[in-house]
Each structure stands twice: as structure tokens, then as C-alpha cells.
Specification:
With 309 residues, the protein is mainly α. The chain has 13 helices and six strands. It has a single domain, classed as Glycosyltransferase. β3 and β4 form a beta hairpin.
Length: 309
């Protein structure tokens, strides 16, 4: 998320480009570190980078990393990790093409459409960065399959989890997955991102006394206490989904919704300023990284054309 934030910042402020590229490379080196790779390695019993020629999905690591690399490639085609980016992209494309449910696993027997949004967006953005269509056919097949099989047709929301063998829903349509997936697709200029965002706004936006909040589940579905994806649910409202909506609101020019949600983020996130720096005291490093990416999200039309907002 930090890499995506720096990429977006560099595109909007060219005078910061050199420093943003430097920080993106530092973050990518960190992602490649043993410390960051060890969780995925433990789950899969193999290293995500060393097993690129194999069949296993590794979407929890590779999809997100590859989207970051695609964003870097668009700014600097000759960047340090270009060869690795090509290898990861080829591996993700091969695995997606082999999947009869158009999704790859995040971890063994765990398949989440939102993580696959990151994987597919990384391939589309790879094409945009290079000005090629090498992944166009695969991407079109993936997008059609997701719309047909992994979007709830009553609400337009993305299904949160599906069976790895059958592709049948194993969880409800939810706000956190829908809005994060919409943001990833928006980074790659995919028009379907707007459909997901508008569905979430219609079905889940639930402001209270002028403060914006987003429900994790659509009406009629029991909310429960929340989980690692949603964060704690407060009267059914999700911290994660509310934050993720900021990115979509910026991508689609929805200023009214952005203001609603940011009021809550500002109140509960407790931002503090230092020279050249802002942090959110209640979010920690992960919250700062997420909000950095979401608050610097670029309008969709500029993501598609490469122009500045």
C-alpha cells in the first residue's frame, strides 16, 4: 500500500518523483525480505518467489506485491525489479488461466475474490505500463468470470470468499472486500471498479449524525462481531470498509461521500502532524500505509489516460 501511495503521489506531484521512486524501491526490497515472506512460506510450505514455476496461487503475497511492481513500472519502466515483475506476472497469468473458477488461492483451500482483484489489476496495469496487450485476453476472461460468478446479483457487491474447488460462495457479499477490490481495479483504470463502488455506496453507506460509516454486510445479513477483514464492527459498521471507501470516492470524484467518511477518519484516527509528515495515532504503521494509498488515490480518468488530475 505504501508503494501504491508513493506511485500516486509521484503522478500528482512530479517534483516529488525522485524521492517517491526511492521510497518505493525501499518498500519493495522490504517486501522481498525473509521476514515478510515467512508467513506465506509457512502457509504454503514453499517460498512464494522460489516457487514461481509451480502451480500454487500465493495470492496473499504475489498479487499485492505484483500490483505494487506494476505501479512502479508505469512510472519507471527500467526499474530495479523489472525482471522479477515479469516473472511474477507470468506466474499469476498462468495460474489464473488454469483456474476453472477464474480465481487462484490466497492460501491453501482459501480463495478470496478481493485478492484476485489485486492479481488481475496488476496484469492490466502491467500492460498499460508497457503499452502492450499481452494479458488482455486473459484479463477479459477473468473480468467476465468474476462478474458472472463472484458478484452477488442482488446487491452488486463482491463475494468475500468462495470454495477453492467449486467457486461457490462460502461467505456473504461484504463491504471490506468489495471496496478494497474496487480500489485495486480503479488503480488499473478498470471501469467495473465504479460499478462495485456505487453498489457499496448504495447498499452499505450508513452515516450517523454527519459522520460517514460503511456497513460490512448488506441489509438482512447478520453482522456478527467482525473479523480480520472488517475490523471490529460497531453497530454493523466496518472500520476497514469505511476506510476503503475513501479510495473509491477519490477515484470516482464523489466529494460528498469522501467528506462524510473523512470526518470519521479524522475523528477516530487521531491524525498528528510533524514537519513533512502525517500519522494516524490509532492506526499504527498498517493504518498509515492504507490511508496513504487511499487518500492519494487518483481520479479514474487520469488513471486511464496517464494525465494529472
Amino acid at each position: 500500500m505504501a508503494v501504491l501511495g508513493y506511485a500516486q503521489l509521484a503522478e500528482q506531484h512530479p517534483e516529488l518523483r525522485a524521492e517517491c521512486l526511492r521510497r518505493m524501491e525501499l518498500a519493495e526490497d522490504r517486501i522481498l525480505s525473509d521476514q515478510v515472506r515467512k508467513f506465506d512460506r509457512r502457509e504454503w510450505k514453499e517460498d512464494p518467489i522460489e516457487s514461481l514455476d509451480g502451480p500454487n496461487g500465493h495470492a496473499g503475497y504475489l498479487a499485492y506485491f505484483n500490483l505494487a511492481l506494476s505501479a512502479h513500472r508505469r512510472l519507471d519502466p527500467g526499474f530495479k525489479h523489472r525482471a522479477l515483475h515479469d516473472r511474477i506476472s507470468a506466474a499469476l497469468a498462468r495460474r489464473l488461466a488454469a483456474s476453472h473458477i477464474v480465481l487462484i488461492e490466497t492460501y491453501p483451500s482459501q480463495t478470496y475474490p478481493v485478492d484476485n482483484c489485486a492479481a488481475a489489476a496488476s496484469l492490466r496495469l502491467h500492460d498499460l505500463a508497457d503499452g502492450t496487450n499481452r494479458f488482455q485476453e486473459l484479463y477479459g476472461h477473468w473480468l467476465t468470470g468474476v462478474k458472472q460468478r463472484h458478484v452477488d446479483h442482488m446487491t452488486g457487491l463482491l463475494i468475500q470468499a468462495v470454495g477453492s474447488r467449486t467457486g461457490d460462495a462460502t461467505d456473504a457479499p461484504r463491504g471490506s472486500g468489495t471496496l478494497l477490490g474496487a480500489y485495486f481495479l480503479g488503480v488499473a483504470g478498470e471501469p467495473f471498479a465504479k460499478d462495485l463502488y456505487l453498489a457499496a455506496r448504495r447498499e452499505l453507506l450508513a452515516p450517523v449524525m454527519g459522520f460517514g460509516a460503511v456497513r460490512e454486510y448488506p441489509g438482512g445479513i447478520s453482522a456478527g462481531p467482525g473479523d480480520i477483514d472488517s475490523g471490529p464492527l460497531i453497530f454493523g459498521r466496518s472500520i476497514s470498509a469505511s476506510g476503503f471507501m475513501l479510495g473509491g470516492a477519490r477515484q470516482h470524484g464523489d466529494e460528498d461521500t469522501f467528506r462524510l467518511i473523512y470526518r470519521s477518519v479524522h475523528l477516530f484516527g487521531a491524525p498528528t502532524r510533524q514537519p513533512g509528515k502525517r500519522t494516524f495515532a490509532c492506526g499504527g504503521p498498517l493504518g498509515d500505509s492504507l490511508l496513504f494509498a487511499l487518500l492519494t488515490a487518483r481520479p479514474m480518468q487520469t488513471a486511464e489516460t496517464g494525465g494529472r488530475p
